[in-house]
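Data deposition worksheet. Section B asks for the primary sequence of the deposited chain exactly as it was used as input, without tags or linkers unless they were present during the calculation. Section C holds the resulting structure in token form. Section D is free text for depositor observations; keep each observation to a single sentence. Incomplete worksheets are returned to the depositor.
Section A, Depositor: J.P.
Section B:
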Amino acid sequence: MTVVLDCRADLTLESLWRVAWHGETVRLGDAANRKIAAARADFVELIEREDITIYGVNTDYGHMAKRRLTPDERKMQAGAPTHHRAASWGEPLPDRVSRAIVFARLANIIEGHAALSPHVADAVVAMLDHGTLPQVPARGQGGAGEILSLSHLFLDLTRRVELAEKDMLSLVNGSPAAAALVADAALSAKTRIEVAAEVFAFAAEAFNAPLGHFAEELETLWQNPHDAWALRTLRILIGGGHGGPRRPYQAPVSIRIMPRMLGEAHRAQRAAETIARQSLAAVSDNPVVFPAGERLGDDAVVSTGGYHNAQAPAAMDALTAAYANLGIIASRVAAKLQDPAVSLLPPFLGYPEGRSYLGCLAMAMVGYEEEMRALAMPTLLPGSESGGFGQDDVASPVFAAWSKHEKAGELLELALATLAPVAARAYSVTGRPVPALLTGLAEEVTAHFPDNGGTDALGPHCAALASCLRARIYR
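Section C:
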């Protein structure tokens, strides 16, 4: 399948999902090609005017911007090597994220605001054919914008195609990485939170928690659409329960606040989704060109701070914090399930015949919980200058926020994959049936955590289950 783009409104979260996660290709429509060509022709005339200053086009870069370039110097700068900008290194971004960045790069291009040469625009689109993209380090991204990461991504392209004035700036300026990263976080969070809800429902029913904890009437009383989603989701997953006697009094706090914690995670995911949708279609170039017909004032080109997306890291931080809270809930419930004085379940902390001792699993979860807690610190503007050079005095924190979100998501999956086998043991020792909508999860647990009293280390079994959950999230 091919995604056809004619305008910025076509750069949607759904389109990104098709292109980045599922490898579909992209084609520019006729309307987009006309706009790109017209904007470039207009810009070529514009740069010949002596009364206009365009940063990085007829001026030098950075703290040398006060020096105006001659026409020959202008052309020489346009074709100068750019390898020095690809200065970061370390663990690379997943290929889906690199594809998402290339896709998001088109927001500045598609309606002419980057004034990119048409043949360069075609080369950018061609990167989303079925070839392998250059690796982009997730670390070392301390620049004021995203120049370091985008230089890695587009370096090979700049060596293959002829670049004219502003083409290089149009490739490496702006904030397509921020748009792509928050979109990736929003997409993964949606399914990750749904998986968390399944495991929590699985554990709550294993605990024999009162069904009133998830009552429909609470949706109106709590006055929160995200909490209502969580209440409804848990209630549907549990169904009518096992049909036998329920626990006669309230379950521990960790179970009663499941809807609230899931509701907050759902709110954070929806907020990230909103920021992603806005960012994907936003023009963030610097300098940005106003095509003919869009100019409200005298300036045809303006320098901006659009390349600094402040909402994206904040949205991802909120998700990371929500994951940490869900991990804490998972840890507490795993411990309470194994305490007969609290759970009122038959003892299974010891060694029922043919079963493994599960008590140490809750200990492992404390480690995951503490890692998530450390990651949940807010991602603020860096305290030191961006390399200390000239105008670039504030770095972007967006890559750090995404890396924390990605790691916290993985840790939450490990925590959920540790809680689920404990809950499965509770079903086994009580003989209660698993709710119909959770039988698939129960089968996954059994397949990856056989609980047959073998002498294998339990950790790798939990890791295998976590990998299974992760495959569902990134399917």
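Section D:
Residues 183-275+307-473 form a domain with the Fumarase C; Chain A, domain 2 fold (CATH 1.20.200.10).
Residues 317 and 378 are 6 Å apart (CA to CA).
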